[in-house]
Amino acid sequence: MKSFKNKQLYQLTLTQILETIREPEVLFWGIIFPVLISIGLGLAFTQDSEAKFRIVIVENSPARLDSLLSVYALTETEKQGEVHIWKITDDALGNTEFRFLRNDWNTGIVSLKRGEADLLISDSLGAIHYHFDPHNSQSQLAYLKLSTLLESPVPLQQNSSTGVEPLKLKGVRYIDFLVPGLIAFGIMGSMMWGVSYTLIERRSQKLLRRMVATPMKKTNFIFAMMFVRILMNFIEAVIIFFAAALLFGIEIQGNIGALIFLFLAGNIAFTGIAVLVSCRTSKTEVGTGWINAVQMPMMILSGIFFSYHNFPSWSIPFIKLLPLTALTDGMRSIFNEGAGWMEILSPSIALSAFGFICFAIGMKLFKWY
Amino acid sequence: MQIEVKNIYKSFKDVHAVQGISFVIPAGEFVALLGPNGAGKTTTVEMMEGLRKPDSGEIRIQGKTWQKNEKELRKIIGLSLQETRFPEKLTCRETLRLFASFFELGSERVDEVIELTDLGSKAKSLVGTLSGGQRQRLALAVSLLNRPEILFLDEPTTGLDPHSRLDLWNILKTLKDEGNTTLILTTHYMEEAESLCDRIIIIDEGKILKEGRLEDLLNENARNLDELFIQLTGGKKLLENISIV
């Protein structure tokens, strides 16, 4: 009678788990750190309910602005000098706060360059002039809001945003956008570092060589590694989700079965990529370079933090081909759009297929010794 | 014949590591490949272990080749590489359990090799806490799991203190007395070859300089292995690369 405890796959998985839990740092960087990052980002981008614009008044102050500020603004003395703060409450658009600071032209330009100011204002023969980079949407918004405000300070002050009906639906807030992306990003990071790095390290320790000098089945070894990582990713995703549900009231509107299916497909895709990336080198430095080369573009392009629709339109079809984009978009559609099996079937199959192809090529090229 | 090596060659880029080595080893014999660092011992052994392919020449183990019978051969050989770092966060027992599972063996065999290599007191210690000698005994324990008919040990005692070296020799002598194992051992310690092996093959620069039983190798000009080596290499190498225990 052969006990299942004597099976390769069981022993390989067991030892992987033991090694992981005995290295507290692995647990920290693998699970706790991503969770902290998600919560931190979530808090940073949702807590700020009022829009803040920083405006520098250069040289001569426009007389009209001066009189308005003296009526509506509070004056505070801060490190940079006297700051006039003008707050507008608006139930529909959210509250807005303008912070005015007086300074000379050169200092004003420097603070514009540093992103400390959104807009410069100067007076030219009694008319107000606005100086800003028209490609900067924050500056543009500051200009639009401020110029409207200066035209008719009182009505805006008393909620003039007629015709605006704020959407308070689930799934349209930034945090709703962010959380599925972070889960997808977590899968990529964990597979790329967990699987690739471990393989390269094992190779450099000659441990791979020692293992394949036995009748061990090579695929068992990789599968065990993948199982353990999927388990860790699952725990991580569950923690991120519950933390976000608790703190920000995130909900999964679509099919949970479909979500798990897509999650697995994502894991397969990134295991495949990880195996391919680590199939030859035995130098961890080279491995780190490869991992970054794969991760960085996807991290930037796949719309984890900000929508990729801001990129030039010719690039969008290419961005959509990236595995992280497919995974993130799929996750978001389940979380926020109520998507089910039908919607995620094709991206899931594509991700799995891509994973298997990378895996097969990786195993073909794999250097065991 | 357990092992037949016929005229094997192996080069790496511009290094001719092995240049036409041939020998045969009958079952149960303990053979030492002796030579200085860089002589081609490890490359030769790794080709016999099926971890490297010779550029030309042939290697047969029990009449089988690595190309055709890798699966079978993996089951009957045991080996320890020059440097393997087993996972530091596993205990000796867990490491052995893992490797035992590759041969479909259970905990009984693990207990036996722990006993045989005298690792009982360290069975529950993490590999990261072991001394050099204990690590080498663990590597030996791993290589003995499948009761190998042929055992390859690549510099098993390099870097060990005399006491640990003696421990390891005693384990190998037990194995020799049982008579079920053929051993191929590489070393640059004369004394190791002398005390453990029936036959010594002296290798330098990828070629066999001389081979035979110790008493046949020695003559009035070479009363011990050191003198023989000096004689063979024309004194060029002297003892700089060869250590004497």
Query: What structural category characterises the helix and strand content of chain B?
Result: alpha/beta
Q: Biggest protein-protein interface?
A: A-B, 26 and 31 residues
CATH topology of the domain at 3-83 and 148-232 in chain B: Rossmann fold
Residues in helix, % of chain B = 25-40%
Helix content of chain A: 55-70%
Give a written overview of the molecule.
The complex is a heterodimer of chains A (369) and B (245). Chain A has helices at residues 8-21, 24-46, 63-72, 105-113, 137-151, 153-157, 174-204, 207-212, 218-248, 256-277, 284-301, 316-321, 323-337, 341-365, and strands at residues 51-58, 74-78, 81-88, 96-103, 119-124, 127-131. With 369 residues, chain A is α/β, with parallel strands linked by helices. Chain A has 2 domains: 4-44 and 170-365, no CATH class; 51-157, D-Maltodextrin-Binding Protein, domain 2, CATH 3.40.190. In chain A, a hairpin with a 7-residue loop joins strand 3 (81-88) and strand 4. Chain B is α/β, with parallel strands linked by helices and 245 residues long. Chain B has a domain at 3-83 and 148-232: Rossmann fold (3-Layer(aba) Sandwich), CATH 3.40.50.300. Chain B has 9 helices and 9 strands. Chain B has helices at residues 41-48, 66-76, 92-102, 107-116, 132-144, 162-178, 190-196, 214-217, 225-232, and strands at 3-12, 15-25, 30-34, 56-61, 77-80, 150-154, 182-187, 199-204, 207-212. A 6-stranded mixed sheet of chain B has the order 5-6-7-3-8-9, sandwiched between helices. A 3-stranded antiparallel sheet of chain B has the order 2-1-4, covered by helices on one side. In chain B, helix 6 (162-178) links the parallel strand 6 and strand 7 (182-187). The radius of gyration of chain B is 18 Å and the shape is globular. Classes of the chains: A alpha/beta (369), B alpha/beta (245). The interface between A and B is medium-sized, with 26 and 31 residues.
